[in-house]
């Protein structure tokens, strides 16, 4: 065979191979497109994510510049697109099927590739990324609009769903195979654009709409304007695929491809104007500069219509993704088969296209700054390929007459396009950087929605329903932001507010939000004051300035010890003089005006805040005290003291003695205490005969079993449904824990440290699925004698036999410290309380600590010149001595210490106070904390640790959907009775020095007392509790929270209680001091 024949064969073989490749590549595989293919392909390529951001772009440019830029861009890009259509077949017999082929013809094979390919790849890949972001966000918007109560799903997951759809569609071989997809996408673009501006019109103009620029300073205004130019440029990005679209059109000498192509382009551009201009102008007119970078995010109502529009956006960008991805597929597959010699195959196509879709998805997840991303891509890539590169090629190939109309128009387009390419990406990149600083995976509106969902979930977990979700959740998000609260902290604060307000229904109501805001403000103020006190920072007041400028005080300082003659004029008459007042007066610095304290200026003294009266008035037999009574002189008070019979008093010993060693507890002591509690409950369950023998809950079993264990959390932090664990006894499970699934329970109320009985099964050995929960110990009357405590009768030999007829009747006044206000150590509230008790003397005055409060500002600062014991002796005991001397032997005083008492052991359980009063040994006595006593056979339990507030902060509960919600305050107090423990919480609160080495039995409450006193910072109450323990019939208990006698610089509350023999025979009043 001759050399020429060999060359001929090679040429034929090469041509055959090239034809095989062309028939396989997506751009050249089919050339049977119709003119309307050009319409919807171009409409799909042109209208897309860009239309959604045009109102946002207008808000950065203003009415005049914005409208000018939109119209000018429409005209310029239509002109440059016409140029490309004309140049497609400018060389007879050759078609430039790809943008880079036209560039190679104009600039040479190598230079043409480097000029066109990078720009085209950036636009097409960037568009695919932006469409992926848009598709994911649109799907999320559809989900959030249709199902606002559903669990929030992150945008990243929706992006993955969008990419999955495109992964399937990307396997379509060529342009004409996606014609149906493109047609549907074009129809969707017209529909959601129309919905956008129609919904905006329906919404109406925003109140106080602002058409000024979004920026607050000139620098931001300039950068935002330039970035907005890029947004508009990106909206006209269809030029990158126009030659590839025209390559699908058939061409003959009689009917060249440019005729059907141009016909379709004209119709497509009319559609572009119909989509772009109404959305841009109407969207900006309605929302002004408050519009988001996606107008569908700004639109909220009607929700079904906005959800539909967002779904149309999703469908459109799916088609748009395929149109822009097809030229990229063509480039990749051309390189693979021509440069790397891969054989054209389905496997190659599936592999390359799947990798491409996955990469665009990952980039979209990482760069979700929608508006700024459009500005960057529009300026950096779309501006060259759409605005001035076609003009440069036209000048180079057509060579119009210099300074002629065509020449001038092309150079104007080049000048404007180059400016756009340089300035817009700089501004957009700045905005991306600024956005990245504030971005935490979601944009601000998404973060607010996510926080709303988290707040809603926390309320639901705590057993609260929300009345008006949209309004209340929005306000709660604002509270979290303004007061630096997490959703969990916010709900915990709401629980405190809920308890203080004694609200009955577990519903977050709009009417309570203002009060809750006030609660948060007060809480914030207290935190600030506390921080400043701890840092030693002094807050100067007008009093400080007055002291510094008062010349009279300077003069008096020169005469130390100058007496004051108006001492008795300043105070209301009492039979005792405050040592603190004496110290102040003896310095010679105090004037009459400066001894008037905020507490002394209070109004509505001794006002009844709440009362329960089920006693006949004749049995009560006590006169009502009014304000005028408090103004009478001391002689009148003495005359009105009735003769009262002394009550019997028996104290149940706890085993704790003053001066005992503490802080010696070991881990072993704690484990033993927990084990003993669990075993005690286990024995009670078995002895009741109501339950089967408990077994190991950690063992895998398909059958239903019964187990007993302690509720605990799987990690540090607050308990929630997902973190509940059950720790069984060493006897049954070796002390191991197992996860607890409570989903099948209709209602429950649990907290860490609670010992419960659980019915259910553990199919895997890793999670116990509960079907029944018993949170109360079955007891009987005989249980009181299981662990008998030592009882000490006070002056039993002196008790009259006449008192036997008055058994089970008792009058009490109950007050809890602090007993002085936060601004001084004058103990004015205690003085006022004793004055009240002189007029209405009870049989038993119960005072619960703290007496010398370690949290008092003066004690914390160390500005007190007396020891804690001296303060307790002179300000507390001396006043009480005077009191009992005044009222006589008919009244007893019982003191219960607190772990906040600076003069006493900081340990819990806590021994009684040491009171060495020989004259009043039987009248003023102290009780351990916690402690139990009997007065006239009325059993009373006391605990000064704020177990109610601490349990409230740790408890999680669920209320049965068809059941009546239980009063939360009663439920908290019932936990004490059900667990038969004064402090069932474990681990204890940080402020509680729980020591198991002393007398863990002191915490036990094996009997149901008649009265249970639980002072707390939450709002005062008196409630009748019903024991929920099985085996007890109608066991009732009166729970009392007297509040605090002093609150801040003002007065608090105390309780006056007459007990007539049962919970249905009481007269209780909560009185404001």
List keywords for this structure.
1073 residues; alpha/beta; Amino acid/polyamine transporter I; seven-stranded mixed β-sheet; 33 helices; 25 strands; 49% helix; elongated
Task: Give me the secondary-structure topology.
Layout: H1 3-24, H2 35-46, H3 49-61, H4 63-87, H5 99-107, H6 109-146, H7 155-169, H8 179-203, H9 218-235, H10 242-246, H11 258-287, H12 295-298, H13 303-338, H14 346-366, H15 370-397, H16 405-438, H17 444-461, E1 465-466, H18 469-482, H19 487-501, E2 507-508, H20 510-535, H21 542-549, H22 551-557, H23 567-570, H24 579-586, E3 608-613, H25 617-620, H26 634-639, E4 649-652, H27 667-688, E5 701-713, E6 724-728, H28 730-733, E7 737-741, E8 748-750, E9 755-762, E10 767-774, E11 791-793, E12 810-816, H29 828-839, E13 844-848, H30 857-861, H31 868-887, E14 892-896, E15 924-926, E16 931-935, E17 938-942, H32 947-954, E18 956-958, H33 968-979, E19 1011-1013, E20 1021-1026, E21 1036-1041, E22 1046-1047, E23 1050-1051, E24 1053-1059, E25 1066-1072
Parallel strand pairs: 1-2, 7-10, 12-13, 13-14, 14-15, 17-19, 19-21
Antiparallel strand pairs: 3-25, 4-11, 4-16, 5-6, 5-9, 6-7, 8-18, 9-10, 12-24, 16-17, 20-21, 22-23, 24-25
Helix pairs in contact: 2-8, 2-11, 3-4, 3-9, 3-11, 4-11, 4-15, 5-6, 6-7, 6-13, 6-14, 6-15, 7-13, 7-14, 8-11, 8-13, 9-15, 9-16, 15-16, 17-18, 17-19, 18-20, 29-31
Keywords: Amino-acid transport, Cell membrane, DNA replication, Membrane, Nucleus, Transmembrane, Transmembrane helix, Transport
Protein name: DNA polymerase alpha subunit B
Subcellular location: Cell membrane; Nucleus
């Amino acid at each position: 065979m001759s050399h020429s024949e060999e060359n001929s064969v090679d040429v034929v073989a090469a041509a055959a191979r090239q034809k095989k490749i062309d028939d396989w590549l997506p751009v050249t595989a089919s050339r049977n497109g119709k003119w309307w293919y050009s319409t919807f392909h171009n409409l799909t390529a042109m209208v897309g994510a860009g239309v959604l951001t045009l109102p946002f772009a207008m808000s950065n440019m203003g009415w005049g510049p914005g409208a000018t830029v939109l119209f000018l861009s429409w005209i310029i890009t239509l002109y440059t697109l016409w140029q490309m259509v004309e140049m497609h077949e400018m060389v007879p017999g050759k078609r430039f099927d790809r943008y880079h082929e036209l560039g190679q013809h104009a600039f040479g094979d190598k230079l043409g590739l480097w000029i066109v390919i990078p720009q085209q790849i950036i636009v097409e890949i960037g568009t695919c990324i932006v469409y992926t972001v848009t598709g994911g966000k649109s799907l999320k918007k559809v989900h959030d609009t249709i199902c606002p109560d559903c669990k929030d799903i992150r945008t990243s997951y929706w992006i993955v769903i969008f990419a999955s759809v495109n992964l399937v569609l990307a396997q379509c071989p060529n342009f004409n195979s996606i014609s149906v997809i493109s047609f549907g996408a074009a129809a969707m673009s017209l529909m959601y654009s129309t919905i956008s501006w129609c919904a905006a019109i329906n919404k109406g103009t925003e109140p106080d709409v602002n058409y000024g620029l979004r920026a607050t300073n000139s620098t931001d205004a300039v950068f935002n304007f330039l970035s907005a130019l890029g947004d508009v440029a990106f909206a006209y990005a269809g030029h990158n695929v126009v030659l590839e679209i025209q390559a699908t059109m058939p061409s003959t000498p009689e009917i060249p491809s440019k005729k059907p192509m141009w016909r379709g382009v004209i119709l497509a551009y009319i559609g572009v104007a119909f989509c772009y201009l109404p959305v841009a102008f109407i969207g900006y007119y309605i929302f002004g500069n408050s519009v988001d970078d996606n107008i569908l995010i700004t639109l909220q109502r009607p929700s079904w219509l906005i959800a539909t529009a967002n779904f149309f956006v999703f469908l459109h960008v799916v088609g748009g993704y395929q149109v822009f991805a097809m030229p990229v597929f063509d480039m990749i597959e051309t390189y693979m088969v021509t440069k790397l010699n891969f054989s054209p195959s389905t496997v190659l196509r599936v592999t390359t296209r799947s990798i491409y879709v996955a990469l665009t998805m990952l980039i979209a997840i990482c760069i979700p700054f929608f508006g700024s991303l459009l500005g960057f891509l529009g300026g950096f890539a779309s501006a060259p390929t759409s605005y001035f590169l076609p003009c440069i090629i036209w000048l180079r190939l057509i060579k119009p007459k210099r300074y002629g109309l065509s020449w001038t128009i092309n150079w104007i387009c080049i000048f404007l396009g180059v400016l756009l390419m340089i300035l817009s990406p700089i501004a957009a990149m700045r905005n991306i950087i600024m956005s990245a600083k504030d971005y935490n995976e979601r944009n601000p509106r998404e973060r607010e929605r996510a926080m709303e969902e988290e707040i809603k979930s926390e309320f639901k977990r705590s057993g609260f329903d929300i009345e008006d979700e949209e309004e209340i959740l929005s306000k709660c998000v604002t509270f979290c932001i303004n007061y630096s609260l997490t959703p969990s902290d916010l709900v915990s604060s709401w629980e405190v507010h809920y308890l203080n307000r004694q609200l009955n229904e577990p519903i977050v109501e709009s009417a309570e939000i203002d009060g809750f805001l006030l609660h948060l403000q007060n809480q914030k103020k207290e935190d600030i004051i506390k921080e400043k006190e701890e840092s030693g920072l002094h807050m100067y007041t007008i009093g400080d300035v007055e002291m510094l400028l008062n010349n009279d005080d300077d003069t008096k300082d020169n005469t130390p010890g100058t007496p004051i003659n108006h001492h008795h004029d300043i105070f209301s008459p009492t039979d005792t003089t405050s040592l603190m007042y004496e110290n102040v007066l003896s310095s010679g610095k105090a004037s009459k005006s400066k001894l008037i304290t905020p507490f002394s200026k209070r109004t509505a003294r001794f006002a009844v805040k709440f009362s329960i009266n089920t006693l006949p008035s004749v049995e009560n037999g006590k006169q009502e005290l009014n304000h005028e009574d408090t103004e009478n002189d001391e002689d009148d008070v003495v005359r009105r003291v009735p003769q009262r019979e002394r009550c019997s008093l028996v104290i149940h010993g706890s085993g704790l003695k003053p001066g005992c060693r503490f802080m010696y507890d070991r881990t072993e002591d704690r484990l033993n205490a927990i084990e003993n509690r669990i075993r005690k409950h286990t024995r009670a369950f078995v002895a009741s005969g109501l339950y089967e023998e408990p077994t190991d809950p950690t063992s895998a079993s398909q059958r239903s079993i019964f187990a007993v264990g302690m509720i605990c959390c799987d990690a540090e932090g607050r308990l929630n449904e997902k973190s509940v664990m059950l720790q069984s006894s060493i006897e049954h499970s070796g002390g191991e824990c197992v996860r607890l699934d409570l989903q099948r329970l209709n209602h429950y109320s649990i907290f860490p440290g609670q010992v419960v009985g659980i019915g259910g099964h553990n199919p895997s050995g890793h999670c116990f699925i509960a079907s029944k929960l018993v949170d109360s110990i079955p007891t009987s009357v005989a249980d009181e004698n299981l662990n008998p405590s030592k009882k000490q009768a006070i002056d039993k030999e002196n008790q009259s036999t006449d008192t036997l007829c008055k058994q089970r009747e008792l009058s009490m006044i109950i007050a809890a410290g602090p007993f002085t206000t936060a601004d001084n150590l004058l103990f004015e509230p205690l003085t006022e309380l004793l004055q009240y008790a002189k007029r209405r003397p009870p049989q038993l005055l119960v005072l619960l600590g703290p007496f010398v409060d370690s949290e008092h500002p003066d004690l914390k600062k160390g500005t007190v010149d007396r020891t804690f014991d001296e303060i307790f002796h002179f300000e507390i005991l001396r006043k009480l001595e005077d009191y009992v001397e005044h009222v006589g032997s008919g009244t007893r005083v019982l003191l219960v210490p607190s772990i906040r008492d600076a003069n006493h052991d900081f340990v819990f359980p806590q021994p009684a106070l040491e009171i060495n009063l020989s004259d009043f040994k039987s009248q003023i006595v102290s009780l351990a904390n916690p402690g139990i006593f009997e007065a006239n056979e009325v059993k009373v339990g006391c605990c000064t640790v704020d177990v109610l507030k601490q349990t409230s902060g740790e408890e999680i509960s669920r209320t049965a959907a068809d059941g009546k919600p239980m009063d939360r305050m009663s439920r908290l107090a019932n936990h004490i009775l059900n667990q038969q423990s004064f402090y069932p919480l474990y681990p204890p609160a940080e402020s509680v020095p729980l020591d198991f080495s002393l007398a863990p039995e002191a915490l036990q409450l094996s009997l149901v007392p008649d009265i249970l006193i639980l002072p707390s910072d939450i709002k005062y109450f008196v409630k009748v509790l019903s024991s929920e323990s099985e085996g007890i019939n109608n066991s009732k208990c009166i729970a009392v929270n007297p509040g605090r006698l002093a609150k801040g610089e003002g007065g608090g509350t105390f309780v006056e209680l007459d007990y007539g023999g049962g919970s249905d025979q009481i007269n209780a009043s909560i009185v404001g001091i």
